[in-house]
Design brief:
- The protein is an alpha+beta fold.
- The chain has a single domain, classed as Hotdog Thioesterase (Thiol Ester Dehydrase, Chain A).
- Helices cover about 25% and strands about 45% of the residues.
- The protein has 3 helices and 6 strands; from the N terminus they run H-H-E-E-H-E-E-E-E.
- Strands 1-2-4-5-6-3 form a 6-stranded antiparallel beta sheet, with helices on one face.
- Strand 4 and strand 5 form a beta hairpin.
- The longest helix is centred in the middle third of the chain and has 17 residues.
- It is globular, with a radius of gyration of 14 Å.
């Protein structure tokens, strides 16, 4: 079976969207990952703050990497996000995904989104379906 690092690196290699967003992988453990992303001007909405979809996408990538790190392929079946503080251009956002529960068929994960000042800017929760397919 592949290591969590191998699995996440394979996923990232094929993940054009995460690469396009400029996401970097900082830490990988079974059931946990930490990612980083800089907010660029093209990621802003009409209020000149980060579009909510940008933070959602960062958190969703963290969910995917953490869930799949066990070696079984997983897909999300339910996700939600709470935006707690505005995110500005050039902010550095960190997404720390943590596994909260995992069974044979389901996994539940939380992702804390923080900025470069260690302020909590968002909370994301995701549930995944654990497939029988192996990485």
């Amino acid at each position: 079976m592949r290591s969590p690092e191998e699995i996440v690196n394979i996923m990232m290699e094929k993940d054009a969207f995460s690469k396009w967003l400029g996401i970097s992988i900082l830490e990988i453990e079974k059931g946990r990952v930490k990612l980083k992303q800089e907010i660029k001007p093209e990621m802003l909405n009409g209020f000149s703050i980060a579009h909510g979809g940008i933070l959602y996408s960062l958190a969703d990538s963290a969910l995917a990497f953490a869930a799949n790190s066990h070696g079984q392929k997983c897909v999300s079946i339910e996700t939600s996000i709470s935006h707690l503080k505005k995110v500005m251009p050039r902010d550095i956002i960190y997404a720390a995904a943590t596994e909260r529960n995992r069974s044979k068929s389901l996994g539940v994960y939380e992702v804390e989104l923080t900025n470069q000042n260690e302020e909590l800017v968002g909370l994301f929760k995701g549930t995944v379906y654990v497939m029988k397919d192996i990485w």
